[in-house]
């Protein structure tokens, strides 16, 4: 079958166009099987909308993966020591009254980053949820920075917050919040 929006050749069981992101319901799919265009009517080049969809998907996935990678970078910096998100979880550091918050925020950020990457790869239907995950990432990094006492935020925190912002903006562009 062929996508009714961009003309891309799709498998018969496709639920989303792999190029332009059009959601194909079962009714639309059954109608398309019967009305496949002739070989001469098929589109040969990628359309501008399909290119935009692919660029947003790959860009959002890359920013989401950066969130997960930030877990391994320094989140806390003291006078002579740097602690990654993994160190915060495994080393039982004494971090004062906000120890639980500081320990688990990097893990939560990593999980939401991986989830955002998966959602970006699955198609357009979940971009509103991906936008929300980006906003959550930014909020968690702000909470983390506010909870610091006697430490300085490391590069991992800033990378996570910046990547969360980029995920939210990328998803917002794709859902039409920004034009």
Description:
The protein has 179 residues and is mainly α. It is 58% helix and 5% strand. The protein folds into two domains: 1-45, no CATH class; 51-175, no CATH class. It has helices at 26-34, 48-69, 85-90, 99-122, 127-147, 155-175; strands at residues 74-77, 82-84, 152-153. A three-stranded antiparallel β-sheet has the order 2-1-3. Helix 4 (99-122) packs antiparallel against helix 5 (127-147). The chain is elongated and about 65 Å long.
Strand order within the widest beta sheet: 2-1-3
**Shape estimate:** elongated
Q: Profile the largest sheet.
A: 3 strands, antiparallel
> Approximately how much beta-strand content do the residues carry?
5-15%
Show unreliable segments. Answer: none
H/E topology pattern: HHEEHHHEH
End-to-end gap: 31 Å
Q: Which assembly state applies to the chains in this document?
A: single chain
Quickly count the domains: 2
Give the key terms:
179 residues, mainly alpha, three-stranded antiparallel beta sheet, 3 strands, 58% helix, elongated
Topology of this structure?
Layout: H1 26-34, H2 48-69, E1 74-77, E2 82-84, H3 85-90, H4 99-122, H5 127-147, E3 152-153, H6 155-175
Helix pairs in contact: 2-4, 2-6, 4-5, 4-6, 5-6
């Amino acid at each position: 079958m062929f996508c009714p929006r961009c003309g891309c050749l799709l498998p018969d069981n496709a639920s989303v166009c792999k190029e332009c992101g059009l959601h194909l319901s079962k009714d639309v799919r059954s109608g398309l099987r019967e009305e496949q265009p002739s070989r001469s009517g098929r589109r040969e080049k990628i359309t501008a909308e399909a290119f935009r969809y692919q660029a947003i998907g790959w860009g959002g996935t890359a920013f989401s993966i950066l969130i997960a990678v930030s877990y391994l970078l320094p989140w806390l910096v003291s006078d002579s020591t740097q602690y990654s998100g993994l160190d915060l979880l495994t080393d039982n550091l004494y971090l004062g009254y906000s120890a639980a918050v500081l320990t688990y925020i990097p893990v939560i950020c990593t999980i939401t980053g991986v989830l955002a990457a998966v959602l970006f790869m699955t198609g357009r239907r979940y971009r509103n949820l991906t936008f929300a995950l980006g906003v959550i990432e930014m909020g968690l990094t702000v909470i983390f920075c506010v909870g610091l006492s006697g430490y300085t935020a490391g590069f991992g925190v800033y990378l996570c917050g910046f990547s969360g912002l980029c995920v939210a903006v990328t998803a917002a562009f794709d859902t039409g919040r920004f034009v």
